[in-house]
Amino acid sequence: MKIISVINYKGGVGKSTLVSNLGALLSEKYNKNVLLVDLDPQASLTFLLMSVDDWRKYYKNERTIRTWFNNSINSKKECDINEFITYDLKVNRILEERGKGSIALIPSHTDLYSIQIDLARNITGNKPRNTARSFMKCISKLNNGFKGIKDNKFDYILLDCQPSFDIITQSAVYSSDAFIIPTKLDYLSTIGVPTLQEHVNTLFNKIEYCIQEYEFKSYKTGRAKLLGVVGTMVKFRRNREVILNRQYRDQLQKQGIRVLNNSIKVCEREIDNDIQIPYVMKSGNLKNDELYKEFEGVLEEILYEL
Fold this sequence. Notes:
This protein is of the alpha/beta class and 306 residues long.
Protein backbone atom coordinates (compact mmCIF):
# COMPACT_ATOMS: atom_id res chain seq x y z
CA MET A 1 0.00 0.00 0.00
CA LYS A 2 1.51 3.29 -1.15
CA ILE A 3 0.41 6.63 0.27
CA ILE A 4 0.80 9.81 -1.81
CA SER A 5 0.00 13.34 -0.65
CA VAL A 6 -0.99 16.04 -3.13
CA ILE A 7 0.03 19.41 -1.71
CA ASN A 8 0.54 23.02 -2.71
CA TYR A 9 0.43 26.56 -1.32
CA LYS A 10 -1.97 28.09 -3.82
CA GLY A 11 -5.54 27.05 -4.49
CA GLY A 12 -7.26 26.96 -7.85
CA VAL A 13 -4.66 24.81 -9.60
CA GLY A 14 -6.87 21.79 -10.30
CA LYS A 15 -5.55 19.76 -7.36
CA SER A 16 -8.77 17.92 -6.53
CA THR A 17 -9.51 17.27 -10.20
CA LEU A 18 -6.05 15.78 -10.56
CA VAL A 19 -6.56 13.53 -7.51
CA SER A 20 -9.95 12.24 -8.68
CA ASN A 21 -8.71 11.45 -12.18
CA LEU A 22 -5.49 9.79 -11.01
CA GLY A 23 -7.55 7.65 -8.64
CA ALA A 24 -9.95 6.74 -11.44
CA LEU A 25 -7.10 5.79 -13.78
CA LEU A 26 -5.49 3.62 -11.12
CA SER A 27 -8.80 1.83 -10.60
CA GLU A 28 -9.82 1.43 -14.23
CA LYS A 29 -6.61 1.11 -16.23
CA TYR A 30 -4.48 -0.63 -13.58
CA ASN A 31 -7.34 -2.45 -11.80
CA LYS A 32 -6.23 -1.10 -8.41
CA ASN A 33 -8.22 -0.43 -5.26
CA VAL A 34 -7.75 3.20 -4.26
CA LEU A 35 -8.69 5.23 -1.19
CA LEU A 36 -9.08 8.98 -1.64
CA VAL A 37 -8.91 11.09 1.54
CA ASP A 38 -10.18 14.67 1.34
CA LEU A 39 -8.22 16.80 3.81
CA ASP A 40 -9.24 20.14 2.32
CA PRO A 41 -12.09 22.07 4.04
CA GLN A 42 -13.19 23.28 0.61
CA ALA A 43 -14.25 19.63 0.11
CA SER A 44 -13.82 19.89 -3.67
CA LEU A 45 -12.77 16.24 -4.00
CA THR A 46 -15.75 15.14 -1.93
CA PHE A 47 -18.19 17.07 -4.11
CA LEU A 48 -16.57 15.78 -7.29
CA LEU A 49 -17.57 12.26 -6.20
CA MET A 50 -20.87 12.76 -4.37
CA SER A 51 -23.68 15.29 -4.35
CA VAL A 52 -23.84 18.04 -1.75
CA ASP A 53 -27.29 16.78 -0.74
CA ASP A 54 -25.97 13.26 -0.07
CA TRP A 55 -23.04 14.68 1.88
CA ARG A 56 -25.35 16.74 4.07
CA LYS A 57 -27.78 13.88 4.59
CA TYR A 58 -25.47 10.91 5.12
CA TYR A 59 -21.97 12.15 5.99
CA LYS A 60 -21.74 15.70 7.33
CA ASN A 61 -22.60 15.02 10.97
CA GLU A 62 -20.79 11.75 11.67
CA ARG A 63 -18.87 10.32 8.70
CA THR A 64 -16.17 12.76 7.61
CA ILE A 65 -12.47 13.11 8.32
CA ARG A 66 -13.39 15.90 10.74
CA THR A 67 -15.34 13.48 12.94
CA TRP A 68 -12.46 11.01 12.84
CA PHE A 69 -10.02 13.70 13.96
CA ASN A 70 -12.41 14.82 16.70
CA ASN A 71 -12.79 11.28 17.99
CA SER A 72 -9.04 10.78 17.83
CA ILE A 73 -8.39 13.97 19.79
CA ASN A 74 -11.03 13.19 22.41
CA SER A 75 -10.06 9.55 22.93
CA LYS A 76 -6.88 8.11 24.40
CA LYS A 77 -7.15 5.22 21.93
CA GLU A 78 -6.68 5.46 18.19
CA CYS A 79 -10.03 5.56 16.42
CA ASP A 80 -10.78 3.12 13.63
CA ILE A 81 -10.49 5.06 10.39
CA ASN A 82 -12.16 2.22 8.48
CA GLU A 83 -15.52 3.33 9.89
CA PHE A 84 -15.28 6.56 7.87
CA ILE A 85 -14.55 4.98 4.49
CA THR A 86 -17.39 4.91 1.96
CA TYR A 87 -17.72 2.99 -1.29
CA ASP A 88 -21.21 4.34 -1.98
CA LEU A 89 -20.14 6.38 -5.00
CA LYS A 90 -21.54 6.57 -8.51
CA VAL A 91 -18.09 5.93 -9.91
CA ASN A 92 -17.95 2.50 -8.23
CA ARG A 93 -21.08 1.30 -9.98
CA ILE A 94 -19.36 2.00 -13.30
CA LEU A 95 -16.12 0.35 -12.18
CA GLU A 96 -18.04 -2.73 -11.04
CA GLU A 97 -19.86 -2.97 -14.36
CA ARG A 98 -16.52 -2.83 -16.15
CA GLY A 99 -14.94 -5.41 -13.82
CA LYS A 100 -12.27 -3.02 -12.61
CA GLY A 101 -10.84 -1.92 -9.25
CA SER A 102 -12.61 0.34 -6.78
CA ILE A 103 -12.51 3.87 -5.40
CA ALA A 104 -13.24 4.56 -1.74
CA LEU A 105 -13.52 7.98 -0.13
CA ILE A 106 -13.18 9.56 3.28
CA PRO A 107 -15.16 12.80 2.82
CA SER A 108 -14.03 16.17 4.10
CA HIS A 109 -15.96 18.71 6.14
CA THR A 110 -16.25 22.44 5.52
CA ASP A 111 -15.35 23.10 9.17
CA LEU A 112 -12.11 21.15 9.09
CA TYR A 113 -10.27 24.39 9.95
CA SER A 114 -11.33 24.02 13.59
CA ILE A 115 -9.52 20.68 13.82
CA GLN A 116 -6.27 22.30 12.74
CA ILE A 117 -6.62 24.80 15.59
CA ASP A 118 -7.38 22.06 18.13
CA LEU A 119 -4.41 19.99 16.99
CA ALA A 120 -2.05 22.96 17.18
CA ARG A 121 -3.23 23.70 20.73
CA ASN A 122 -2.31 20.17 21.76
CA ILE A 123 1.37 20.78 20.99
CA THR A 124 2.38 21.93 24.44
CA GLY A 125 4.81 21.05 27.20
CA ASN A 126 6.71 22.64 30.04
CA LYS A 127 9.91 20.90 28.93
CA PRO A 128 11.43 20.32 25.47
CA ARG A 129 10.88 16.56 25.76
CA ASN A 130 7.20 17.01 26.55
CA THR A 131 6.75 19.48 23.70
CA ALA A 132 8.49 17.07 21.32
CA ARG A 133 6.30 14.20 22.53
CA SER A 134 3.08 16.16 22.02
CA PHE A 135 4.27 17.25 18.56
CA MET A 136 5.03 13.68 17.51
CA LYS A 137 1.73 12.44 18.90
CA CYS A 138 -0.11 15.11 16.93
CA ILE A 139 1.82 14.73 13.69
CA SER A 140 1.44 10.94 13.64
CA LYS A 141 -2.36 10.78 13.93
CA LEU A 142 -3.01 10.07 10.26
CA ASN A 143 -0.12 7.62 10.07
CA ASN A 144 -1.52 5.70 13.04
CA GLY A 145 -4.98 5.79 11.50
CA PHE A 146 -3.71 4.30 8.25
CA LYS A 147 -2.00 1.51 10.19
CA GLY A 148 -5.48 0.24 10.95
CA ILE A 149 -6.12 -0.38 7.25
CA LYS A 150 -5.10 -3.84 6.09
CA ASP A 151 -2.37 -3.78 3.45
CA ASN A 152 -4.42 -5.82 1.00
CA LYS A 153 -7.48 -3.55 1.24
CA PHE A 154 -6.02 -0.73 -0.86
CA ASP A 155 -3.15 -0.53 -3.31
CA TYR A 156 -2.92 3.26 -3.09
CA ILE A 157 -4.10 6.03 -0.79
CA LEU A 158 -4.19 9.55 -2.27
CA LEU A 159 -4.41 12.46 0.17
CA ASP A 160 -5.91 15.70 -1.15
CA CYS A 161 -4.45 18.37 1.16
CA GLN A 162 -5.57 21.96 1.58
CA PRO A 163 -3.40 24.74 0.07
CA SER A 164 -1.40 25.45 3.22
CA PHE A 165 1.22 23.66 5.28
CA ASP A 166 -0.81 23.45 8.48
CA ILE A 167 -0.62 20.62 11.00
CA ILE A 168 -3.09 18.43 9.08
CA THR A 169 -1.07 18.72 5.87
CA GLN A 170 2.10 18.03 7.85
CA SER A 171 0.47 14.93 9.30
CA ALA A 172 -0.49 13.83 5.78
CA VAL A 173 3.03 14.29 4.42
CA TYR A 174 4.51 12.46 7.41
CA SER A 175 2.19 9.50 6.77
CA SER A 176 3.09 9.38 3.07
CA ASP A 177 5.63 7.50 1.03
CA ALA A 178 5.72 10.34 -1.48
CA PHE A 179 4.10 13.60 -2.51
CA ILE A 180 3.43 15.63 -5.65
CA ILE A 181 2.93 19.37 -6.09
CA PRO A 182 0.43 20.49 -8.75
CA THR A 183 0.92 24.10 -9.80
CA LYS A 184 0.27 26.54 -12.58
CA LEU A 185 3.46 27.43 -14.41
CA ASP A 186 3.20 31.15 -13.67
CA TYR A 187 5.04 33.58 -11.41
CA LEU A 188 2.78 33.59 -8.35
CA SER A 189 2.26 29.83 -8.35
CA THR A 190 5.85 28.74 -8.92
CA ILE A 191 7.52 31.03 -6.37
CA GLY A 192 5.83 29.04 -3.61
CA VAL A 193 7.13 25.65 -4.75
CA PRO A 194 10.73 26.00 -3.44
CA THR A 195 9.36 27.37 -0.16
CA LEU A 196 7.00 24.42 0.17
CA GLN A 197 9.84 21.98 -0.52
CA GLU A 198 11.92 23.77 2.13
CA HIS A 199 9.09 23.48 4.67
CA VAL A 200 8.76 19.76 3.96
CA ASN A 201 12.49 19.32 4.56
CA THR A 202 12.27 21.36 7.77
CA LEU A 203 9.38 19.19 8.95
CA PHE A 204 11.31 15.96 8.47
CA ASN A 205 14.42 17.48 10.07
CA LYS A 206 12.31 18.29 13.13
CA ILE A 207 10.79 14.81 13.18
CA GLU A 208 14.19 13.14 12.89
CA TYR A 209 15.56 15.35 15.68
CA CYS A 210 12.69 14.45 18.01
CA ILE A 211 13.03 10.73 17.32
CA GLN A 212 16.81 10.69 17.75
CA GLU A 213 17.18 13.20 20.59
CA TYR A 214 14.49 11.70 22.80
CA GLU A 215 14.64 8.12 21.51
CA PHE A 216 11.01 8.04 20.38
CA LYS A 217 11.55 4.66 18.75
CA SER A 218 7.88 3.85 18.15
CA TYR A 219 7.44 6.53 15.51
CA LYS A 220 7.75 6.18 11.74
CA THR A 221 11.11 7.13 10.24
CA GLY A 222 12.01 7.99 6.66
CA ARG A 223 11.12 10.90 4.42
CA ALA A 224 8.37 11.26 1.86
CA LYS A 225 9.84 11.56 -1.63
CA LEU A 226 8.95 14.42 -3.96
CA LEU A 227 7.87 12.65 -7.14
CA GLY A 228 7.67 15.93 -9.01
CA VAL A 229 5.79 19.11 -9.76
CA VAL A 230 2.79 18.67 -12.04
CA GLY A 231 2.10 21.59 -14.34
CA THR A 232 -1.64 22.32 -14.52
CA MET A 233 -3.66 24.69 -16.70
CA VAL A 234 -0.60 24.89 -18.94
CA LYS A 235 -1.00 26.99 -22.07
CA PHE A 236 -0.12 25.55 -25.47
CA ARG A 237 0.09 27.15 -28.88
CA ARG A 238 0.32 24.98 -31.99
CA ASN A 239 0.90 21.92 -29.81
CA ARG A 240 3.87 23.56 -28.08
CA GLU A 241 4.02 24.80 -24.52
CA VAL A 242 4.12 28.61 -24.57
CA ILE A 243 7.52 30.19 -23.89
CA LEU A 244 6.47 31.72 -20.55
CA ASN A 245 5.37 28.34 -19.19
CA ARG A 246 8.65 26.79 -20.30
CA GLN A 247 10.60 29.56 -18.57
CA TYR A 248 8.94 28.87 -15.22
CA ARG A 249 9.44 25.14 -15.74
CA ASP A 250 13.14 25.78 -16.37
CA GLN A 251 13.42 28.00 -13.27
CA LEU A 252 12.12 25.22 -11.04
CA GLN A 253 14.42 22.66 -12.61
CA LYS A 254 17.44 24.93 -12.13
CA GLN A 255 16.62 24.92 -8.41
CA GLY A 256 16.84 21.14 -8.39
CA ILE A 257 13.08 20.58 -8.35
CA ARG A 258 11.82 17.85 -10.65
CA VAL A 259 8.98 18.91 -12.96
CA LEU A 260 7.11 16.09 -14.68
CA ASN A 261 7.41 16.06 -18.46
CA ASN A 262 3.67 15.55 -18.79
CA SER A 263 1.27 18.31 -17.78
CA ILE A 264 -2.45 19.10 -17.75
CA LYS A 265 -3.30 21.97 -20.03
CA VAL A 266 -7.01 22.57 -19.48
CA CYS A 267 -9.08 24.42 -16.89
CA GLU A 268 -11.21 22.60 -14.35
CA ARG A 269 -14.42 23.96 -15.83
CA GLU A 270 -13.68 22.03 -19.01
CA ILE A 271 -13.56 18.67 -17.28
CA ASP A 272 -15.85 18.86 -14.26
CA ASN A 273 -19.18 19.22 -16.03
CA ASP A 274 -20.16 15.57 -15.45
CA ILE A 275 -20.43 15.64 -11.67
CA GLN A 276 -19.47 12.52 -9.69
CA ILE A 277 -17.67 10.87 -12.62
CA PRO A 278 -13.97 11.69 -13.21
CA TYR A 279 -13.21 12.79 -16.75
CA VAL A 280 -11.05 9.78 -17.57
CA MET A 281 -14.04 7.46 -17.00
CA LYS A 282 -16.51 9.19 -19.28
CA SER A 283 -17.90 7.07 -22.08
CA GLY A 284 -16.44 7.34 -25.53
CA ASN A 285 -13.14 6.61 -27.19
CA LEU A 286 -11.13 8.15 -24.38
CA LYS A 287 -7.88 6.37 -25.11
CA ASN A 288 -7.48 8.64 -28.12
CA ASP A 289 -8.62 11.70 -26.18
CA GLU A 290 -5.94 14.35 -25.63
CA LEU A 291 -6.92 15.12 -22.04
CA TYR A 292 -7.07 11.42 -21.18
CA LYS A 293 -3.53 11.04 -22.48
CA GLU A 294 -2.38 13.96 -20.31
CA PHE A 295 -3.69 12.38 -17.12
CA GLU A 296 -2.36 9.02 -18.26
CA GLY A 297 1.11 10.47 -18.90
CA VAL A 298 1.22 12.18 -15.51
CA LEU A 299 0.23 8.95 -13.75
CA GLU A 300 2.82 6.90 -15.64
CA GLU A 301 5.57 9.28 -14.52
CA ILE A 302 4.33 9.22 -10.92
CA LEU A 303 4.31 5.41 -10.84
CA TYR A 304 7.77 5.29 -12.42
CA GLU A 305 9.21 7.68 -9.83
CA LEU A 306 7.40 5.95 -6.97
